[in-house]
Amino acid sequence: MSADGRGVSADDGSSRRPLVMISEGLADYGDYYGVGYPRPLLAAGAFPVLLPYLDDAADRREAISRADGLVLAGGRDIEPWRYGRTEPHPKQLDPAWKLDEIEIDYATLAVDHGVPLLGICRGCQIINVAFGGTLYGDLDEFPEGGADHPGAKWDEWRALVAATLAGETPPPHPMHPVDLAPGSLLARHLGRRYGVDSYHHQAIDRVGEGLTATAWAPHGVIEAVEMPSASAFVLGVQWEIHEEWQHDERMLGLWRAFVEAARERRVEREGATVSG
Length: 276
Hints:
alpha/beta, Rossmann fold, two-stranded antiparallel sheet, 9 helices, 11 strands, disordered N terminus
């Protein structure tokens, strides 16, 4: 029992789930961000929390210092000037207010402080831009054949969101295969080739410093990056792994690997607190 008699038992911290923070954008899809991203973390054994827009850099540093893991969620297009583009592509979508600055800061802070980092869709692109990489502005700029990439199917995406919020089986959605780099984190969990869903109209062009491309669509579009030199888990994927875990145990295994890295971070952080 706790001191106030409310039935909360004390423990030494060994049973506590790692705290994984989720940075998410404007709610273009209703309550989806509060449902779609926490569920795989809960299933994998983490305790997820959604971050507000922390405009102050000191608040962002404090958030990362308290985090055991960080997820950068999907969302709106990144402001093109942030990756050196002087003119936006005609199909550039509206950016999220303040979020680019906030999440680019989160990405570099997480890597600098050894916080496991997972970027999904926009989050993958944020990781790349944070480390000096660039993006294609739209499908029509992808490598040869890339215009046939089955992305930017917004009606299908909205149907998937609606099904998720209603607790229903998602409808069919655009898919394509990806080839995975041998020995990569992704390949260890998913094998050499894997079928992924596809809802993005932008993608990585030049890979950022320290990052390595580890997944490609058939025409060469980069679908994932990792950072082998980082002290903790760093992975950015262009597809919706927060949906696919429900249908494939291998994908849930990937979430569990991320959560295990977060658990190791918690143990390390709490050990440092005790020793200090």
